[in-house]
Structures are given as structure tokens and as C-alpha cells.
Design brief:
There is one protein chain. The chain is of the alpha+beta class and about 325 residues long. It folds into 2 domains: about 140 residues, 2-Layer Sandwich (D-Amino Acid Oxidase, Chain A, domain 2); about 130 residues, Helicase, Ruva Protein, domain 3 (Orthogonal Bundle), CATH 1.10.8. Helices cover about 35% and strands about 20% of the residues. The chain is built from 10 helices and 10 strands. The strands form 3 sheets. Strands 1, 2, 3, 4, 5 and 6 form a 6-stranded antiparallel beta sheet that branches. Strands 7-8 form a two-stranded antiparallel sheet. A hairpin with a 2-residue loop joins strand 7 and strand 8. The chain is globular and about 65 Å long. About 30% of the residues are buried. InterPro entries: DAO_C (IPR031656), DAO_C_sf (IPR038299), FAD-dep_OxRdtase (IPR006076), FAD/NAD-bd_sf (IPR036188), G3P_DH_FAD-dep (IPR000447). It comes from Triticum aestivum. One of its GO terms (molecular function) is glycerol-3-phosphate dehydrogenase (quinone) activity. It is found in: Mitochondrion.
Amino acid sequence: MANSDVVPMIAPSSGVHIVLPDYYSPEGMGLIVPKTKDGRVVFMLPWLGRTVAGTTDSSTAITMLPEPHEDEIQFILDAICDYLNVQVRRSDVLSAWSGIRPLAMDPSAKNTESISRDHVVFEDYPGLITITGGKWTTYRSMAEDAVNAAIRSGNLKPANGCVTDHLHIVGGYGWDPASFTVLAQNYKRMKKTYGGKVIPGAMDSAVSKHLSHAYGTLAERVAAIAQNEGLGKRLAHGYPFLEAEVAYCARHEYCESAVDFVARRCRLAFLDTDAAGRALPRIIEILASEHKWDKARRKLEQQKGIEFLETFKSSKNAQFRDGKHNGQ
């Protein structure tokens, strides 16, 4: 805004990841291929009970709903195939997605072609500080560097230094890895049947551990909803996500859409696209009850949810258009 001739500071790059069943990676153990046949890096890691593998790196245009190309998915499968004693099959892909990395170009760098995966803080006009690039995993470092740049620019005199490295996220204070046992011992999952009857179910270890790790010391609030409001049913078979989480996130975490929940609150879209699709109507039903949605809003949420999930190329919803897969 201060300079109409400013050089772009972002080079968008597409990165594709796929999710496979858990038997592709032992618990607590990952695999990295530092140099594939064409010089790229590929990894496999256990993630939320499944296996995540990736990634690719290619320039792309910025779009709201990026989609992975079939050749990118196949590249990842081919790259890990040489290092496993398990047959790597396209039909095992539970989910595949493309994300856009904001690779940063530092305007102050002497080499104008240098592109960084790290963030860049730059003051190109007095008092106007830009922070760009980076990633979620370094958000605290990004914030600290941006604030420090503002302090230097304004010649400010802060009362103390940065404290972000001492702050816990919500639910982190007082959390203990064994706290899931409190949920398992003290709460039931009260589940409504299709006939409207409420039946009790165990708060098993898988669900208890998930709630504890996802919500920390606030997990008991979710468990209480599951027990007291009949929202203890799992949203999808084989996954620990509960109906109660939808209600909790709507009430306390500003969850305003079905896509928000299925992608960012419980990660089901990334873990198993087809399971997410089956859970979508129930998620919309609960959110509609919490937010008093009318029929038009419910229909819109269903439409947006389907459009979003169609960008995830699992083995069931993928459209094979290249010659390699025709006829299979």
C-alpha cells in the first residue's frame, strides 16, 4: 500500500500429502527418504492413528480449494514403495490433499532469486512492517520477530522481554498425560439411538486419550456434554471423534461451519475423506441445533461440505484420467 511498485514477497508452492492405513508405519517410528530418484524428499509418519506421507513441491496459482493431481499422489506412492515390504496400493489412500505454502522472498536479500521456507519480517516503509511466509508450527517465533521489529522501528521501551515461550495454549496448564484416565473412570458416553432411546456406552481409552490430547484440562467439559446431553456417539466408525465435540466447538470455540469442524477441529477430512462425508449430515444437524440454522443454511452447509471434500482425492472419490489408471 505504501509503495505501488513493490516486488511480490510470496511465491506460492503446492504441497501434496496422502494418508494411508496405520500398518504403513509402526507407532512412534517414521521414515524419511532424503533423496528420491529425482532428488526430492519424501517422508512417512504415524499421525492420529493413520500414516501421513508426502510431500511434493511445485509452483502453483493461489486458489481457495487446491486439489492434488493424480501424478503427484502416484509420485509419493512410488517413492515409498522401494522402502517398504508392504505392497503400496493406490486403493489404500484414505485421503489426499494439496496445500499452498507461502514461500517468502526477502526484498532485502542480495540474491533476488532466493526463496525461503522460513518467515520474513521486513520494514519497507517507516512504521510499516510486513511479516510473510512461515508456517503454523513456527507461529510463536513469527509473532516474536514481528513484535521485536515493531519495537525497534518505533524505538519503544517495553516493560519486559518476550514471554511467549512460557505461555501454555488453552487447556495446557496443569495437563498431565495420564489425565485421560479421569475421563475413562468418571464419564459415560450416552448415545441416542435412531429410535430416540438413550443408551450408555463406555468412555473407552481411545476416546479418552483423544479428548485429553485435543482439549487438555478442558476435556471434562466435552465429556460432560457427551454424558449429560446424549451426544456420546462417535461421528465415524473407527475414529474417536464424538458428537459432543461439535456442540462444544460451536459453543466455546467459534466453530461456525461444518467444513471448519470436519477439517480443522477433528481432522477427519484429512484422515478419511469418505468417513468425513458420511459424518457430514450429523455434524450439520448438531451445528444447526446450536446456531439455530434454517433449512436454507443447512442446505448450503451440505453443499459447501461436499464441494470441500471433493478436493480430497481418496481411493474412492478420485477420478483417474491418466492412461496408467484407465480401466482399473
